[in-house]
Design brief:
about 90 residues; mainly alpha; about 0% strand; about 85% helix
Amino acid sequence: MANIKSAKKRVKVIAKKTMINKMIKSSTKTAMKKVILAVEAKDKAAAEEALKGAISAIDRAYAKGIIKKNSCARKKSSLTRMVASM
């Protein structure tokens, strides 16, 4: 455990940031899963609506630095292809 006051503060700050990052990453995965479930259910309207939300969530995660650029592009492309192939 840290002994210096600034190091103790950094531990708290990092813990809070980690929790926020996990929350954003989790909500992104949930949005992606909604698209996949809609595609499996063959519900075109719901899939397109979920795709908009998923792309928005992925872009937010990228903007905050939680996922990298190519990962963001790959996930959006994959989901878009799924919906388009319906």
